[in-house]
Specification:
The structure is a single chain. By secondary structure, the protein is α/β, with parallel strands linked by helices. The chain folds into five domains: 1-35; 42-160, 2-Layer Sandwich (Beta-Lactamase), CATH 3.30.450.20; 177-265, Helix Hairpins (Orthogonal Bundle); 268-429, Heat Shock Protein 90 (2-Layer Sandwich); 450-583, Response regulator (Rossmann fold, 3-Layer(aba) Sandwich), CATH 3.40.50.2300. It is 50% helix and 19% strand. It has a five-stranded antiparallel sheet with strand order 2-1-5-4-3, sandwiched between helices. A five-stranded mixed sheet has the order 7-9-10-12-11. It has a five-stranded parallel sheet with strand order 14-13-15-16-17, sandwiched between helices.
Length: 584
């Protein structure tokens, strides 16, 4: 009895297990069927199944949506090749023939050739829809096999590739745009570089052509002004007008060239420790005659502390001269110019130039540092172009400084410059402070005559130097009109000093200097350049070439005579050293 009950329990339990397993299999089958239906009916990708001959047997909802055909229109009627771009089929067949080294026919065979041989195959193809629309797709092809591994059909699953193709086309277009823009930029850069080069060449030529006649005007005017007997009062007035106009014209040329050089980025600064007191004293001495002429009283603060700044001596002097010149020029009659200096912060020192002029309105202050803007002074009596302050501002900024102004109408203006203040550590790390120029040696009767050779092709410049040297009876002048002739005379006469123009017929003055330096008989002769090529790059090039000094035209007589004396003294010391070595 108990055994029968136990069997019944087992049967009941087994039945429940079978029921559970069947339910699980049913659910799994439903899930699989749902997945298959989802795949077959998905509108997001096309599925095309064919028999072994390529005739379409399945055409899912995605294929219908994308290509516009109803399944009944293609099933058992055509192969996928019939709705594929024919030129692509031909191209694919040719590519496969080359890749696999066997003939492949265009048509359905080209679509499934790799899959039929068990090779994974994914490629791009264009289908032609019912309305003629083209659909780019990426197609994955596989062969369908039975239990005996015999091919019974093929399955082609594709995704819409139109968006990606559009993206590729757009990317290609953008790449081309970038290439075109790059080419345009390179062309624009090349054009700009050529334009800058042409501009630089034009400025250099303009500078040379303007300086050459100015050299004659200012040179001979200085000679007449300082000649003996001195000029009459009427002649003196005329000479003053000539000199004033000539130096003003030279200032304008320099300002324009400076502005052009700065804006093209061609000016570089060699910052060194500079004693402010020295620069200010030089500017005071230079501007005192102008201030006296206009009845302007100038006062300068005492430099109890030797302030040193990181600057370039010549450029800093140029800035202060401009500020002092403006303070005198735009002051009232009998006015005052005050120059003050104080430490504004532990790292910065400020130099201010105060005038008692009319002052500037807020509108004029806003226009102050604009090039060629003279703040309505075009019709006034004061000369100028409105460039000086612009150049000064750029130069100060290149020296890591700042420039500014405060002004009150009816009271006057204060222009200030701030620069980096150097500590003792900074001074020790920098170059030594510049030395004062040695005074010219006074000539005494009985001094040994020295020889100066001047190589110059410009008659006016030659005449001017002849007249200047005539004031020195201890100097014998030799001349040459070109470099080759100059080299010949130098080798034959062995002058103490050679004065050399740069732009000469035949070879240049720089080439002549190299030839002289390579000859043992002339290698030690100091050669001083005297040229109208006065651009900074020209001066740097000349000094790098080995010239003893580089003077620019127009000639400033005192500078010229001092330089000549220094060169003669150098030549004399060289000669004495050579004699001592020979005697030893």
């Amino acid at each position: 009895m108990r055994e029968r009950e136990s069997d019944a329990v087992h049967l009941e339990h087994g039945g429940r297990l079978d029921s559970i397993h069947k339910e699980r299999r049913r659910k799994a089958l439903l899930k699989t069927t749902a997945l298959q239906d989802a795949i077959l009916n998905s509108a997001n990708f096309l599925s095309i199944a064919t028999d072994e001959k390529g005739v379409i047997q399945l055409f899912n909802a995605g294929a219908e949506r994308m290509l516009g055909y109803v399944a009944a229109e293609v099933i058992d009627r055509i192969t996928p090749a019939a709705i594929t771009d024919q030129q692509e089929l031909i191209a694919r067949a040719e590519a496969l023939s080359i890749e696999l080294a066997t003939p492949v026919r265009p048509g359905f065979e080209a679509l499934v050739y790799k899959a039929s041989r068990g090779i994974e195959d994914i490629y791009g193809v264009t289908y032609i829809g019912k309305n003629g629309a083209r659909l780019g797709t990426m197609v994955s092809v596989m062969s369908l096999r039975n239990a005996e591994n015999v091919i019974i059909g093929y399955l082609l699953i594709g995704t819409d590739n139109t968006a990606r193709q559009r993206a590729e086309v757009e990317r290609a277009r953008l790449d081309q745009v970038v290439r075109d823009k790059s080419a345009d930029l390179e062309l624009a850069k090349s054009v700009a570089e050529k334009a800058n080069l042409a501009k630089s060449e034009f400025l250099a030529r303009m500078s040379h052509e303007l300086r050459t006649p100015l050299s004659a005007i200012l040179g001979f005017a200085q000679l007449m002004d300082s000649g003996s007997p001195p000029p009459t009062s009427a002649q003196k007035r005329s000479l003053n007008q000539i000199l004033q106009a000539g130096w003003h014209l030279l200032d304008l040329v320099n300002d324009i060239l400076d502005l052009a050089q700065i804006e093209s980025g061609k000016i570089s600064m060699l910052l060194q420790p500079i004693a402010l007191s020295e620069v200010v004293r030089e500017c005071q001495a230079m501007m005192a005659p102008e201030a006296k002429k206009r009845d302007i009283r100038m006062t300068f603060s005492h430099f109890d502390v030797p302030y040193f700044v990181a600057a370039e001596h010549t450029r800093l002097k140029q800035v202060f001269i401009n500020l002092l010149s403006n303070a005198i020029k735009y002051n009232k009659l009998g006015g005052v110019v005050e120059v003050d200096c104080f430490v504004r912060t532990p790292e910065r020192v400020r130099i201010s130039v105060r005038d008692t002029g009319e002052g500037l309105t807020r509108e004029k202050l806003a226009q102050l540092f604009q090039p060629f803007n003279r703040l309505g002074e075009r019709a006034g009596a004061e000369e100028g172009t409105g460039i000086g302050l612009v150049v000064s501002k750029r130069l100060v900024e290149l020296m890591n400084g700042a420039i500014g102004v405060q002004s009150t109408v009816g009271v006057g203006s204060v222009f200030w410059v701030e620069l980096d203040l150097l500590t003792q550590t900074g001074l020790a790390a920098g170059a030594a402070a510049p030395k004062a120029t040695a005074p010219a040696r006074v000539f005494h009767a009985g001094t040994r005559p020295r020889t100066l050779l001047y190589v110059e092709d410009n008659p006016a410049s030659l005449m001017l130097v002849k007249d200047l040297v005539a004031r020195r009876p201890d100097i014998r002048l030799l001349t040459a009109g070109d470099a080759n002739r100059g080299i010949e005379i130098a080798r034959r006469s062995l002058p103490d000093v050679i004065l050399m123009d740069i732009n000469l017929p035949g070879i240049s003055g720089i080439e002549a200097r190299e030839i002289l330096a390579g000859d043992l008989s002339t290698a030690d002769i100091p050669v001083v350049a005297l040229s109208a090529d006065a651009m900074p790059r020209d001066i740097e090039k000349g000094l790098r070439a080995g010239f003893f000094r580089y003077l620019t035209k127009p000639i400033e007589i005192n500078e010229f005579m001092n330089t000549l004396e220094v060169a003669l003294k150098f030549a004399e010391s060289k000669a004495e050293r050579r004699v001592n070595e020979e005697q030893a």
